[in-house]
Amino acid sequence: MTEAAPRLMTFPTARERPFDPPDELGRWQEETPVRRMTYPDGHEGWVVTGYAEARAILADPRFSTRPELLHSPFPQRPIRQEDLDRLPPGFFIRMDPPDHTRFRKLLTGQFTVRRMKLLEPRIAEIVADHLDAMERMGPPVDLVSSFALPIPSLVICELLGVPYGDRERFQRDSATLLNLETPVEESRAALDDLFDYLHDLVLRKKREPEDDLLSGLISADELTDREIAGMGLLLLIAGHETTANMLGLGTFALLTTPAQLAVMRDDPDSVENAVEELMRYLTVIHFGLIRAALEDVEIGDHLIHAGDSVLLSVPLANRDPERFADPTVLDVTRSAHGHLAFGHGVHQCLGQQLARAEMRIAYPALLRRFPGLRLAVPPEEVPMRTAMAIYGVHRLPVAW
User: Fold this and answer.
1) Backbone angles phi, psi at 295, to 5 degrees
2) Rounded-to-integer distance, Cα 82 and Cα 373, Å
3) Smallest Cα–Cα separation from 307: which of 39, 49, 99, 94?
4) Is residue 3, in this structure, part of any structural domain at all?
5) Does residue 8 lie within any of the structural domains?
6) Cα–chain-centroid distance for residue 221?
7) CATH at residue 364
8) Are strands 289-293 and 141-142 parallel, antiparallel or unpaired?
9) What is the pLDDT of residues 266-322, one digit of tens each?
10) Is 17 a member of any domain?
11) Which range of residues forms the domain containing residue 144?
12) Could you write out the DSSP letters of every residue in 76-135?
């Protein structure tokens, strides 16, 4: 067992190419999959770039996701006690079992493969409606605002029971919260605004229940109104931001690799593998996931001490050559199942089957409706979400 001396270093975030993690992270991975890193607040923690090591930590109950135990690897986003005190009740991704289990079990049945299959005709209808609107509008259009963002937003709104007419408000607040450069006070105001919105909506549904997920949580009578609002906040952000950015960034990647685009467009049997490969290759969890060791744990040849924070670089883990052959190559024919883009273990993304259904329907429908789809600007002019917790493109101008 080894325990390397801490090295003062800044976690690299600057990307030399839009679809690839920072080159320096790749060099770290080549040296060792687990290494010491001194965090901005002086905490001597770790960064993990290896697939096997990241997967093991995500599955290990000796690692916690509770924010009060974590240290931030980003100087612009320190973890402050006053922010912890404002964390909404019901925000269960920041809880460990058994608290996490209590909330998650109320939702598990809502996001099964079977339930998502039942939603597919409605998702296809929503996709077709937006393609019709794009066709009427004519090129050039911004694929993000006309396609990638509205489709998952409308789907999660209908599932939760959130009025889609309020999308400007929740999309604005979500973008503010996910921007690592947002001033602290603005971030707090966005969180408060979004929580107040969901809380008011829960109270309204309590008086006038409908056939939706929030009303179902209310009728179960196991949670407080504020806990349901906190769960709704989490599901609303995660339910539209992640898939929206995969649709935008994935289309950008396909447009720059015509052979891969042709497979996705022309071979229906390839779509499932293609979606998994795009998630592996692009991994919109921009910087990774943070955990804290609850006790001393051996990971590989390293002893991680109780209290140590560990940053799991999921984008690098998904490009580990020990797990995926030619990992820097986008190959939509490969089987990329087992990637960590949805996480792993008890915190694995609850809505992953919904996201998969949306992507399996949306990508081929877009490419078949517009077989001549192309970028309307040079690739280097596409604005990337370099400062956001969820990576992607701010805009994607396209023509056909």
Assistant:
1) -155, 175
2) 48
3) 39
4) no
5) no
6) 30
7) 1.10.630.10
8) unpaired
9) 999 999 999 999 999 999 999 999 999 999 999 988 999 999 999 999 999 999 999
10) no
11) 23-399
12) TS---HHHHHTSPTT-GGG--TTHHHHHHTTTGGGG-HHHHHHHHHHHHHHHHHHHHHHH
